[in-house]
Amino acid sequence: MASTTTPSSSSDPIVFYDIASGPPIRPFAPNPWKTRYALNFKRAPFVTQWVDLADVTSTRKSLGLDPVRFHDNGEPFYTLPAIRDPAADNKVVGDSFDIAVYLEQKYPEAPSLFRNNPSSSSSIGLYASFNAHMDSLFTMGAALAGQTFPFNPETAEQCKAEFCRRLGVKSWDELLVEGEARAQIVSGLQKSLGVAAKCFRFSGDDGPFIGGKEADYADIIIGGWLMMFSLTVPEWEEIRAWNGGIWGGCTMPSSRTEGHGDMAVNEVDPCY
Ligand SMILES: N[C@@H](CCC(=O)N[C@@H](CS)C(=O)NCC(=O)O)C(=O)O
Question: Could you tell me which residue ranges the GST N-terminal domain spans (predicted)?
């Protein structure tokens, strides 16, 4: 199943189950990216357990985690991220949003992921609906990654066959969008992101984050998706320039963390 576990300075770090791209291994999946950001934001000591895409189902089952997603026909859809916390009797949490809530409670002294009133469930509920909304919006563009999806060559055919089975098509080629169909997806995505751009209401020096000068989980939700797009979607250079460049200029960790160390990616996980 999983490959490398990276070292950590803590004796009892959280184990973070992330989906590995093909070699060279790097994180690319949007929901695990949200968890990677949240762990770093909270300065939580963690190690990454890399899981091949073909092993996501067996890994999740081995952790005893129920599915949090279902296919259209009701079949369980086993996913990552998940975390296991050896310091809390090996507690496992298996949804990126639930993991963020868990980290918020475990590290109350660190900056808050959920602004305004961190202990208020209604505030957290608003972030949950923002998460669901952004997931549906960005999923629209996921088809653009078909040709460039970072499969592990050793398991690529198995994974492609599984995607075909889920989507009821006979061959992987049927899922590859090109020409006019592709242009329509790009154009639809541009319109939707144009609406989403209104979340960034800062002006002048008040940003660059959704809530102003400090990042929180809303930025992480968008950041997770943008990491996936930047690594897998050929149109990324075009997309990052939309809406005054906010998608490329504000949310990517390299540019967005300048002066905002909370969003840094590799503080505690030397693998990335
Ligand atoms: N609501 C879940 C969704 C997780 C999810 O959809 N994970 C995807 C990667 S972003 C996955 O594991 N896919 C495995 C597959 O397609 O086989 C969460 O936020 O953790």
Answer: 30-105
The reported pLDDT for the residue numbered 120 is 59
Rounded to an integer, what distance in angstroms lies between the CA atom of residue 107 and that of residue 44? 8
- Residue nearest atom 6 in ligand 1 by C-alpha distance: 79
Of the residues 36, 39, 80, 97, which should be mutated to test ligand 1's pocket, given the most ligand atoms within 8 Å of the CB?
80
Residue keyed to tokens 């073909």? 54
* 205 Cα to the center of ligand 1, angstroms: 35
The protein residue with its alpha carbon nearest to ligand 1, atom 13, reads: 79
**Distance (Å) from CA 79 to ligand 1 centroid:** 4
How many whole angstroms separate alpha carbon 44 and alpha carbon 113?
13
Query: Alpha-carbon distance 99 to 113, whole Å?
Result: 11
Contacts of 104 (CB under 8 A, 6+ apart): 42, 112, 113, 114, 118
CA 176–ligand 1 middle distance (angstroms): 20
User: What residue's CA is closest to ligand 1, atom 9?
Assistant: 29
- Cis preceding-peptide flag for 24 (omega within 30 of 0): yes
Residue 208 confidence (pLDDT): 78
